[in-house]
Amino acid sequence: MNTTDDQLKNGDPIVSPSMPTTAWLTDPRVYAVHRLDAHSDHACWSHAPVNGEGSDLGQSLDGEWRVRVETAPTGRFPDGTSDGPDWISDVSPLFAASDFDDSSFSRVQVPSHLETAGLLAPQYVNVQYPWDGHEDPKAPAIPEHGHVAVYRREFDADGEVAQAVREGRPVTLTFQGAATAIYVWLNGSFVGYAEDSFTPSEFDVTDAIKMEGNVLAVACYEYSSASWLEDQDFWRLHGLFRSVELNARPSAHVADIHADTDWDPATSRGSLSLDILVDGTPNAATADLVLRDKNGTTVWHTSTEATGTLHAEAEIDDASPWSAERPDLYTLSVALLDADGRILEIARTRIGFRRVSIEDGILKLNGKRLVFRGVNRHEFDCRRGRAITEEDMLWDIRFMKRHNINAVRTSHYPNQSRWYELCDEYGIYLIDETNLETHGSWNSPGDIPVGTSVPGDDEAWLGACIDRLDSMIMRDRNHPSVLIWSLGNESYAGEVLKAMSAHAHRLDPGRPVHYEGVNWNHAYDEISDFESRMYAKPAEIRDWLEHGDERGEASKPFVSCEYMHAMGNSCGGLSEFIDLERYERYSGGFIWDYIDQGLVQRLPDGCERLSVGGDWGDRPTDYEFVGNGIVFADRTPSPKAQEVKQLYSPVKLTPDGHGVTIENRNLFASTDGYVFAARLLEDGREIWRADYRFDVAAGDTQHHDIAFPDIDSDEGTREVTYEVDLLLAEATAWAPAGYELAFGQLTDTLNPEGDITGNDQDDGRATVTLSRWNAGIRRNDEEILMSRTQGGIVSWKRNGREMVIRRPEIVTFRPLTDNDRGNRSGYDRAAWFAAGRYAVVTDTSITQSDDGGLTAAYRYKLADPDHTPVSVTYRVTPDMRMQLTVEYPGNAAGAASLPAFGIEWELPGEYQHLRYYGTGPEETYRDRKQGGKLGIWDTTSEASTAPYLMVQETGSHEDVRWLEATDIQGHGLRVTQRGDRHFTASLLPWNTYTIEAARRHEDLPAPRHNYLRLLAAQMGVGGDDSWGAPVHTAYQLPADRPLTLDVNLELI
Prior knowledge:
EC number: 3.2.1.23
Strand content: 35-45%
Structural class: mainly beta
Pfam family, one: Glyco_hydro_2
Organism: Bifidobacterium breve
Domain Beta galactosidase small chain/: 776-1050
CATH topology of the largest domain: Beta-galactosidase, Chain A, domain 5
Largest sheet: 9 strands, antiparallel
Radius of gyration: 33 Å
Strand order of the largest sheet: 52-53-54-55-64-61-60-57-58
Number of domains: 5
Enzyme class: hydrolase
Low-confidence stretches: 1-15, 81-90, 756-760
Mean pLDDT: 95
Number of helices: 13
CATH class of the largest domain: Mainly Beta
Distance between the termini: 75 Å
């Protein structure tokens, strides 16, 4: 509902709308003045456009503007200078005048944020409002110390806009996004006022615009009553951050298109119900309506009189339904013609035939049960903030398609219109979310509701909240990608949200409504068509799906609207959520979230970093809680994406020695568009490959034979891996032919009683020297030295190349992850931090073995409360191969589980190259390794350091069979598992404790050495949430269970 010119305040005008006042900033009942009604985002032309041609009726006002930011004065508008007179209420402010001198203003690009332009300091807060602690206004009041930006832009009318000005036809001015409230003047005339940062604000400027020398002035306020409705978990950024544009209107104009579609699974018939609003009163105008399919073939055509609201209906036989798997679109053209058949205007929009329904508590698309494998996505760029570009959007879409992500929740506001067009075109399901979040109005520390909330039951907020919902629905309802409307995020419950739900159902009955906040007050369960929860654990969801809620009800589809909190090194345990897909009422979920919100910040030394809250001096702040993406802020994939890609794949591959079982969980697409690449690997190296084509229908599971070659089992211990990769058969708009979408592997060990051996060496006898302080073993140009006092190996040389900086240290800790910090792991496991670091040697035994080798056995006492004994044994064979065994007895009953157990070996800095046979290519962890493919991978210590916003555990690799840490010439150390016991390893430029001590990457010292960490095991990283959820028990290392690292080492 727009605040109209004659009814600004519950029917009582507070002032003539031609005389704006700053009182509107604190009145929730005034949210739009002179703003035109919301409408569909169709495109218009003055002629028949050719493919790819943009609208010729628009004129962009993007580019350089002049702006000045100052403290918002109380009770008046700024005048644009630092010492000018107060504004008088019956005249325009000085800065709005055409002849105002703005030469001292800063130059900024629009769209952009004031903060990214350096005119305001960015501030990040999550739940709390940005003024909390500085001031304590009560809604709808706003802080006294806010800012206002005075924008000015000069322009001449151009193209069709100029023609409209000459002919006296209507011209509109649209701000696609402005935060938080704007007053607008054109050539000194007040144009209008608007709130709602994320939907268009369009004004009629016909009477104010002229051909040349136009001056557009905007007062953009940091705070208004709308700030209480926009408490999202993001950087608080302001200004004109989306495009500004003029649009000319012909004498007859398509003002709005409502294309309501349906697709009947039983008949494959598509239904189209059209309501088209035509403005203007042309003589004898007609509307020519044409619907064309993706090939440009006309499938429906009709003509009607072009006055008022037009209604038309169509039935399309054998219509191609829209889905994310097959995003078939139709183009609707509306041509307004004068009496002579000349084009007045052509409007076009793309539509899709599809049916969204909830049947027996199951969410369905086109009659098939739908599962979201989604992400929450903020619009974000590390340099531009939320002023993102089409290039950013395309990168995101392609990344999502390549990583099997099929859905996005537009958290927590409507996105740019172009995003919806791309989702229609490429195939992404959307939950479209209203720009509404009031978390800080009702939530106290500890996630405790305080009994008051905005909007709650307060009718003063009703108009603004309905208007935000209405603006979103009216703009976006023709987009087939939008399956569900969301009322907003974390705004508790109440009568206003209940009215919003009813309004959404009334305005668009064909889409269900989502809202999670009713979980705080189940008296309002009717608001949401879904059982939607944030960060519910897999066991909790399973319990609801099997038994219902506390009232025994489980009648709705379940959606995890936020789950798998991907903060830092996270996303452990994702597979347990995917396992829930076997329940029909489980409709999947949306990972929180898509992209880290790290803003680029230049440091005093000229270097740049990705900043978090607090880095800009912003207080209050929620610091690093801003970084929760599976994509880093600079749009490079994080290691977490590897797991998401594999587990989100709708095609599951299970190979065996004779073929592969293919489970196609797609709803509509068969597997005929894929190549199944079968590979046979021996000890990680490919020895055979063949490509196959298998056509498995959607929803079907089939086993297909593959002619894997026979393997001779008499050739010693080897590991054989049967692998099948899912590849694109042909190039798509989002990936090239041959791109891998998923894989399946089966590993079998032949002759498992042996070891996976290292490199062969020639025979020869070693010389053992048992001295008072050290014991040595030498063979040719290679020598190993064991200390009797320092607890281990202190030198290993060949040809003068030293492999030991200091003797390997026992590690019982790992650098804390963001999740660890949130769940008090550092507090609970503080004893393990000290246990290995300050362990002492209590016994040493060094002897020459009967075969001429050397055995050095050390007994340690850990610095934990139980003084747990640990043994470290080096056995060096006469051919200078070493067997290293590190044993933890598992007798620390009652102690917290171990973060990790093994050793850390300090190597010279030149040994920075890592080749390993294990899961990769990205880092893997105990609870995040299903996306890691078993193979031989190459990396470096530097590349292994994932650039999480906060320094933390990184670079680990699970299920390692062997590794080589080498210099550029290939010289170095080879480590191989003994028997069938894999190990965990990493090679990093810093040791465990240096990483733990650092907060940010610039805190880390310049690398001098490299640290090879060899572990029996490391606990998982977790991911249910980042503020208390522990790593699942199955992925912990209980202190009462023994752990053994058992490996062979040799120089290469």
